């Protein structure tokens, strides 16, 4: 309770923390829709001899989609015998890679949120935490791009390998014209399609989060602080004190002498004469003589 009370959960309302919450949520959606999938398709084989037919051949498959290990028994329509067939392909590498990136993204997002909420000061101290966060975020953004593209291609191959119409071509009985083979229903792969969509949504979130983490690193301020325009004008207030308009006129020294003394007022003297206040002569004239 004390830890929760000391938390700075206001960061969750800011883009830096809010996007991390979205990354945490969509990472769960991505790896859960793929990692928990199990599907099934159904076919039927109607032999010339109806007693040898099998109208309900069910083939089940699941994550991690090692389809070459999935087998089923199909009738040969020859004396009640059957054959064991395997699906084609192993697509576990792309599926497991996608799920792994989703799980690690979930864990890192949760850890980053804990840092934001409880030790944000240490995160921003000397920008070391932000720089590490930026590097890890860039790596995850790249990993989401690679894993989502790989899984999209893998899912396309899974759909092809589990297409009942293609699987029917593997059955020996279906190559005989007197037998009738058909699919009963296709596998439902809407969940897998959603997992690919969540993968690219995660890619967008992690790429977009790069900008907000980058602003925490301080690199922008360092670049802006060392940038000096080549022809920058001096600001007006400083220029008056640095030799612009603040320089004295070279002719002022020789012409500054006429400074009448206004302190003495002109008036009539005691003997009735009028005396002016301009009795003091300019000092500069004597210097010039």
TrEMBL record:
The chain crosses the membrane at residues 21-40, 97-120, 132-153, 196-214. InterPro entries: Marvel (IPR008253), Synaptophysin/porin (IPR001285). Residues 11-218 form the MARVEL domain. Keywords: Glycoprotein, Membrane, Transmembrane, Transmembrane helix. This is MARVEL domain-containing protein. PROSITE patterns: MARVEL. Residues 231-289 are annotated as: Disordered. It is a multi-pass membrane protein. It is found in: Membrane. One of its GO terms (cellular component) is presynaptic active zone. Belongs to the synaptophysin/synaptobrevin family. Residues 277-289 have a biased composition (Polar residues).
């Amino acid at each position: 309770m004390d830890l929760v009370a000391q938390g700075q959960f206001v960061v969750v309302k800011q883009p830096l923390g809010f996007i991390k919450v979205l990354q945490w949520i969509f990472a769960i959606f991505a790896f859960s829709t793929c990692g928990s999938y199990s599907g099934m398709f159904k076919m039927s084989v109607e032999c010339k001899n109806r007693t040898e037919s099998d109208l309900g051949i069910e083939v089940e498959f699941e994550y991690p989609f090692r389809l070459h290990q999935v087998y089923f028994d199909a009738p040969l329509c020859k004396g009640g015998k059957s054959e064991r067939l395997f699906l084609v392909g192993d697509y576990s590498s792309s599926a497991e890679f996608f799920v792994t990136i989703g799980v690690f993204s979930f864990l890192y997002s949760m850890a980053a949120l804990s840092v934001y909420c409880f030790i944000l000061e240490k995160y921003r101290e000397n920008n070391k935490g932000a720089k590490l966060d930026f590097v890890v975020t860039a790596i995850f953004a790249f990993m989401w791009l690679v894993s989502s593209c790989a899984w999209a291609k893998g899912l396309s191959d899974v759909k092809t390998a589990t297409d009942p119409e293609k699987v029917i071509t593997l059955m020996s009985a279906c190559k005989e014209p007197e037998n009738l083979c058909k699919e009963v229903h296709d596998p439902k792969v809407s969940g897998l399609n959603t997992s690919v969509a969540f993968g690219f949504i995660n890619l967008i979130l992690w790429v977009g989060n790069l900008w907000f983490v980058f602003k925490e690193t301080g690199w922008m301020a360092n670049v802006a602080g060392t940038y000096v325009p080549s022809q920058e004008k001096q600001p007006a207030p400083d220029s008056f004190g640095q030799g612009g308009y603040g320089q004295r006129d070279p002719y002022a020294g020789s012409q500054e002498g006429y400074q009448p003394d206004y302190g003495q007022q002109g008036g009539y003297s005691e003997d009735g004469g009028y005396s002016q206040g301009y009795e003091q002569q300019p000092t500069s004239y004597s210097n010039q003589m």
